[in-house]
Amino acid sequence: MSEAAIRLGWWLSSEEHGPRDLVAHAMLAEGAGFGTAMISDHLQPWATAQGHAGHAWTTIGAIAVVTDRLEVGTGVTAMVHRAHPITVAHAAATAAILLEDRFFLGVGTGERLNEQPYGARWPRPGERRRRLADAIDVVRRIWSGGTVNVDRGSWKVERYRLYERPATPPPIHVAASGRRTAQLAGTAGDGMIAVAPDPTLVDVFHAAGGRGPTIGQLHICLADTSDRAEEVAWHHWPNGAVAPALLSELAEPTEFEAATQHLAREAITSTVVCATGPAPVIRAIDRFVAAGYDTVYLHQIGPDQQRLADVAASELLPHYRS
Length: 322
Fold this sequence. Notes:
Helix content: 40-55%
Number of helices: 11
Strand content: 15-25%
Distance between the termini: 12 Å
CATH architecture of the largest domain: Alpha-Beta Barrel
Order of helices and strands: EHEHEEHEHEEEHEHEHHHEHEH
Structural class: alpha/beta
CATH class of the largest domain: Alpha Beta
Largest sheet: 8 strands, parallel, barrel
CATH topology of the largest domain: TIM Barrel
CATH superfamily of the largest domain: Luciferase-like domain
Shape: globular
Radius of gyration: 19 Å
Low-confidence stretches: none
């Protein structure tokens, strides 16, 4: 499947790296030949060992200053308690101006981890989907110009006008973990983001009217030995071994650590490609291609980001350009 058209992106993990390092990684990605990057938007890290959770939007502004070609998007921003659609529309519009139309807005239904500190009730999945659908509508209305009033659905807006708007509104890509969110991506979004090479999500997205990019996230850990890669992935990304049903429900980093304390280290290989070279990564990318995805963001776990830049520049990017 390697001959199929595929776009590779760089994942900026704000849980593992501080904001200055993320800016440097964005420059590294652009220098290696990547055309797009996505930055996670978290209030807390998944695990205390990760140690970071800088403000993604502030970091995006800094990235805009030091890059010339790199597209940047959020992966992903939730509108539950932490962020109101007014705030997101305002921030995204400014990011699009600073990046000169190299920005996209990735949105999702959120995780309790990033909402619990606000002390409000954590909604069930169906309610979060409705809130997200309403939020996307509000964001688009704000971007369209004029004075916006909303007094129905999940959000209220009273006489608000966005004065700093880009010439072209940025695309909105919706994170999907199941059929219902894939359908929402197709009806309300300009693209879909998924974390597994599931062809069903692609089919549902297209059946619902989705015509934009289908995006996958691939967790990898490249190191000198497979054993070392496994060790680094387990230390820096233990949440990768947590059951998917728990990812949106646990409230604190310590709860994610508790969920993995009785698992063997090898459990991390079920969701992370631990390797010494490009071949296993190419096979994993090709599974996304076979499932119908056209873009894959590579998340290199751990501090050694230069290794991904080197492997991508010498092997991965030329392989898929050919």
